[in-house]
Amino acid sequence: MPAKSQPSQRIECDVCVIGAGSAGLSAASGAAQLGARVVLIERGAMGGDCLNTGCVPSKSLIAAAHAAHGFKAAMAMGVGAGLVPKIDFQAVHDHVHAVIGAIAPHDSVARFEGMGITVLQETAKFVSPGELVAGDYTITARRFVVATGSRASLPPIPGLAALEPLTNETIFALTTRPDHLLILGGGPIGLELAQAFRRLGSAVTVVDAGAILARDEPEAAPLIRKVLADEGIALFEHASFADPQRVEGGVQARVETAAGTQIITASHLLVAAGRKPNIENLGLDAAGVRTTGQGIAVDARLRSSNARIYALGDVAGGPQFTHIAGYHAGIFVRNAMFGLPSKVDYAALPWVTYLDPEVAHVGLTEADARKQGADVITIVEHFAENDRAQAERRIEGFVKLVLTRRGKVLGATMVGPHAGEMISLWGLVISGKVKLSAVASMIAPYPTLAEISKRAASAYYKPKLFGTLPKAWVGLVQRFVP
Q1: Computed over its alpha carbons, how large is the radius of gyration of the chain?
Q2: In terms of domains, do 136 and 236 share one?
Q3: CATH code for the domain of 371
Q4: pLDDT digits (tens, 9 = 90+) for 315-363
Q5: Are residues 16 and 127 in the same domain?
Q6: Cα of 3 vs its chain's centroid, Å
């Protein structure tokens, strides 16, 4: 057997980035625009999970489902009574992939080569602490970035892998609507796709080992449970999932809860029960990089145990959000390019579950704040008190603020229409860039959903404004000032 040929071309650069997802693309472009010599390596599709199998296709599918659901909402206002939307699932598929295609040029090889970046569509592997090979190339760099992301993982349930269930990596390739979609996992991905497919006409069953929305404020889950039930989604929480097997026309599994056992038969099975970092076969041992079950171990500056190698995005073992990947890239650029000791700070970390209504959060929950020893108060305002929400028949939901008694906002949760669009204001407040008093005193256009933030901020000052001392002062003014 002939010996395998050795890499024949050498490249020396300032920054070598492995992975062309959100973190890798942002890090590569940032470094290149600052004059660094950059090599970008990607073995798969440019754009990574977010563009191809994650955020972009899922939100595109959700948009189609929202359009279909609009028929039902319109009937409540006396419009189009009796109409039922016709779902062309092939056209839905085409819409999803058209959106991917429209965004893809922004993440393309041509665009990044146009920045002066050397793009290699190869598999990378470290062979020493300062060198890796990719195809026929040997690359040395002053700094390396590992931004290889994560992938869907299957729970160790006997028989599950043999079924080759759908994951987020394959479900968007469907051109025929599932008759009945059984979803294992009630996290954000599972719930978002459950509601989307239900609105597009599929029967949907969701099974989760725990409770839904476990990371969010406890007031959110009951509201969302009711919404999902009203839309006809069967939800099994604190449930075990066993004996998955293929049967005529689809799949079958046994679901056990405190209420008893049910045999669920469905046409399709989707697993959305966790993700696994892509760290295999990278030669990290040879590079002196320590790993854990969550990914690459990093310090607050995102450096691995080999200070020349940074880990960004999902592979860094922290919060798994596309916006965190972009944030990590900024941390890397400030450290590696400018020499600034920039560290991650998740105090104002936002996340959104793109249900309808949306569930958005930033900062600490009340429970987390109390665990940290904070003496907190909470303010809750409901969309039922918002005139725009009433006009649009969208009164489900609330905003909840978690504050210290001195008015420092530690966390905020919004459940309601467009909550994800409105939560950023509270991120600015938590980060200290906007004061709570500024939100309370701002002039908000009427009627808008965003007025709920002003109302919540004002609620903190209401006891002080209408207390005994202000009333006494007003009395004096009215008595003595002409």
Answers
A1: 26
A2: no
A3: 3.30.390.30
A4: 999 999 999 999 999 999 999 999 999 999 999 999 999 999 999 999 9
A5: yes
A6: 46
Residue 385 falls inside a structural domain: yes
Residue 70: is its pLDDT beyond 90? no
Which whole-number Å values give the CA distances from 439 to 406, 409, 435, in the listed order? 16, 12, 7
Residue 189: pLDDT band with limits 50, 70, 90: very high
Question: How far apart, in whole angstroms, are the C-alpha atoms of residue 387 and residue 408?
Answer: 28
Whether residue 144 lies inside any domain: the answer is yes
Strands 137-146 and 150-152: unpaired
End of a domain among 304, 337, 370? Answer: 337
CATH classification of the domain holding 305: 3.50.50.60
Residue after which a domain boundary falls, among 258, 273, 288: 273
Q: Confirm if 456 and 401 have CB atoms less than 8 A apart.
A: yes
Which residue range is the domain that position 382 belongs to? Answer: 350-465
233 assigned to some structural domain: yes
**Domain count along the chain:** 3
